[in-house]
Write the structure tokens for this entry.
Amino acid sequence: MSKFINEFKEFAVKGNAVDMAVGVIIGGAFGKIVSSIVDDIIMPPIGWLIGGVKFTDLKFTLPTMEIPGVEKMEAATINYGNFLQTAFDFVIIAFCVFLLVKGINKLTKKKAEETAAPAPEPAPTTEEKLLTEIRDLLKKQ
């Protein structure tokens, strides 16, 4: 049992698990920010352009059935406007995350190129060695 606990501690304290937890927390906050941008800044002008329609209000109302002896039920609705709003949020969040990852990869690649040691020069081939020996012999004569 203690081996299992030690393995879990090692996993939890590793950089990858901590980095992932931080990423999830920041991602959740980032999602709220982007949702607010979409809901409060982008969608109102789009709704205004299409005639003052608020996307979250778009719905299709299903016909109600009247059953004798049962009190009247509320009409069921298919809220496709809410779905459109959520899909739009997703596309914008995915695009922002794509740009963020692309930027991080660019910085990481640049940093890796700066810290990478220069490649060692390749060893001379046997032909080059023979030519060098011939040159040296000719210099001696």
Q: What stands out?
A: The chain has four helices and two strands.
